[in-house]
Amino acid sequence: MAYAHGSNEVANGIGPMAAVIQILVTREVSASSPITPFLLLIGSFGMVAGLATYGYKVMATLGHKITELTPTRAYCATVATAFVTVAASGLGLPVSSTHIAVGAVMGVGIARGIGALDLRVVGGIIVSWFITVPVGALLGASIFHLLRAVFSIE
């Protein structure tokens, strides 16, 4: 699973940073930007910092709030998450391994029957998926317009 996270989440985080650095250095927008070992290192440290500060909340939700996980069930969910994440990364798809993990944990719970899921928790997760995408889009557009106005860039 750590390999899957590295193949996906670090790339999702440093891809935009690589583009910004490329633009700052060359003053041009290009179709691709080099990913240096230094950027990979920064992304890795960012993942560790995120895990250390807020990761425990997500781990608690995945680990016991959605459904009861035994070691066998947790293993099945982890293998499924790793497989789907690595496959998506291999195809160049920027997916969320957390969303995939939630789906895998729900799948393990559903295998025991719908009653094995805490539907209140599952409902909250699904609502959060519908909220975070448009909020992220609005915030991204707002930051772009702010920076464009401040730095007079196109």
TrEMBL record:
- Kindly list the biological process annotations in GO that this record carries: phosphate ion transmembrane transport
Query: What InterPro entries does this protein's entry cite?
Result: Phos_transporter
Question: What name does this protein carry?
Answer: Phosphate transporter family protein
* Protein's membrane topology: Multi-pass membrane protein
Instruction: Give one Pfam hit by family name.
Output: PHO4
A Gene Ontology molecular function term of the record: phosphate transmembrane transporter activity
Please list every transmembrane segment annotated in the UniProt record, as residue ranges: none
For this UniProt record, the keywords arranged alphabetically read as follows: Membrane, Transmembrane, Transmembrane helix, Transport
Q: What species does this protein belong to?
A: Candidatus Accumulibacter phosphatis
> What cellular-component terms does GO give this entry?
membrane
Q: Tell where it localizes.
A: Membrane
